[in-house]
């Protein structure tokens, strides 16, 4: 199994139960505590989905402040755990895009968890509240012009509540129910290997971030709802959630950024429709399945799921009168359709391990989505990549990765672009799927400090070859960056 980095190893159960139902002496371990990295959008490698994973002991040496003068042990005795993570990023467009140059973005996140068993003897309950402070400028919007943000932290500036929920386990946590304001992308559509990469599409993909209201209940937003997780048998997990589909309560198209519409994260919107999402997860060990029980474990997780949204969604080609949106005399208001849907699959699979106990591993991931092409700008999306753990001599905690992704436009979005070019109402030209490749290296400098230099290359920046405002060609984008993450 991959040797876990300090910032990850303390609060594993929240995702690990989704990856592999934890078993110890025939009994399921507690499942409700979230990962520290659940308050981050991407860029931190999550634990390998190894069957039989044992939750490691808490270790204050993996945090910069350690025991904080005895405050952490005292709080822990009363069931309270506080985690703080700070992210600093510097990005630059070296060539192509809209204009070259650097930008800075950063984020500080704090999460407070209250364990009801330690607090007052109530078993398997957890209260969680987290907050974000996001700062800096958007390299993607100001200098690159891409549809896939170079980083999950490339978001609107705000100081906001992130999540606020109560989680209760039943039947030794084989059944787990969460109620409150929740973020779906910490548990659904997750690829643990894709989460290592910084480009935002490897977290919450275009198929949801562009096709749902305000991107849906995803970082840095949450929405009122409930999530149920059930472990009917070892290696199988079934999850479902029902939430509001519009976390900021605004219209689908707006000149006001979602973080400006709800700058504090306390809107708790009930406007719009209802979002239903479900996922089935199967954990398996291919090596032991095909090569025998003595072979080095090659764990993997395979997921199938889908979502259904009862809201109203804009047609990508026709206006409210049934005419073309690209017509000069169009109303400018799209025709709206009821309901929306998407299906998806995710596969994470380790394909090589040096030996049974070795942290030297190679893993693959693939994720694909599909949905309706009339009301969604992106109808199909696919991503894939490979990660190499512990292969740098003397750097057993470091990871190298390379990944690729693209999103294909729906038939009506393509038709609208052709209409606009034919009628002369746009300078952007035909839509072309934007493709991006990312190569990155994550160095665990200390148990609490991670430095991650990053390279990204974009083809068909913004989904076209021309700037829609000027008609000038947009060159393929070359982006360099570095992410520094500190756990306090």
UniProtKB/TrEMBL annotation:
Which interval of the chain is the signal sequence? 1-30
Recorded superkingdom = Bacteria
What's an example of a GO molecular-function annotation for this chain?
porin activity
- On whether Cytoplasm is a keyword of this UniProt record, the answer is no
Q: Does the keyword Signal apply?
A: yes
InterPro entries for this protein: Carb-sel_porin_OprB, OprB_Porin, OprB_sf
Q: Name one GO cellular component term.
A: membrane
Per UniProt, the keywords (alphabetical) are: Signal
Q: Which GO terms describe its biological process?
A: carbohydrate transport
Q: Which family does it belong to?
A: Belongs to the OprB family.
Q: What is this protein called?
A: Carbohydrate porin
Question: In which organism is this protein found?
Answer: Gluconacetobacter tumulisoli
